[in-house]
Design a protein that fits this description.
Blueprint lengths: L1 E3 L6 E4 L6 H8 L62 H4 L9 H13 L6 H8 L34 H12 L7
């Protein structure tokens, strides 16, 4: 079994004894980084991927159901259209995956979460009016990775309730994860 970078620039690991991607990842998870891996469409159901570096990896359309992702680095990984049912994950780390475009309702909740974790939340109101990025003059990074829409920020934005990382994780799974056929 061979695992390459998503841009096909490098082979990450090649092991003829491994018969599945799941077996390969579990065997090597403590030895190598899987950052930038092409795992598109992989069957990883039930895998122990805890503490793995999956940053910037393409996991879209993969079966991650019942997988253990505790402590995994999912920063900028693509989990779109993956089966995310019953995964074990720390919700804040799940928000670091690359979620791209989301519905307007979810976008507002994610932006509100970002603002709640920013030292100067009012910068989001300024951003909506002027276009000046709220993170431009701070050492704090975004709390979630998605395509934001400043046009959705209204005057009452900062008075909106803030959803927890867990609630946002559940909303992302419902919206961006693979939908069950008979759901």
């Amino acid at each position: 079994m061979k695992l390459e970078r998503w841009d096909n620039q490098e082979t990450i690991v090649n092991d003829d004894e491994c018969k599945s991607m799941r077996e390969l990842l579990e065997k090597y998870k403590d030895k190598i980084s899987f950052a930038y891996s092409d795992l598109h469409g992989s069957n990883l159901s039930g895998s122990d991927l805890s503490d793995s570096d999956l940053s910037d990896s393409d996991l879209s359309y993969s079966d991650l159901s019942n997988s253990d992702l505790r402590g995994s680095n999912l920063s900028y990984s693509d989990l779109s259209y993956s089966d995310l049912q019953n995964i074990i994950i720390a919700p804040p780390s799940f928000l670091f995956a690359n979620w791209g475009k989301v519905s307007d309702a979810l976008c507002v909740h994610l932006m509100r979460y970002d603002a709640a974790n920013h030292p100067e939340p009012q910068k989001f109101l300024e951003w909506a009016k002027t276009g000046t990025c709220p993170y431009q003059s701070t050492n704090v990074l975004r709390s979630a990775n998605f395509t934001e829409k400043r046009s959705l920020i209204t005057e009452d934005f900062l008075s909106l309730p803030v959803k927890s990382a867990y609630e946002l994780t559940q909303m992302l799974i419902a919206e961006k994860g693979k939908q069950k056929e008979n759901a």
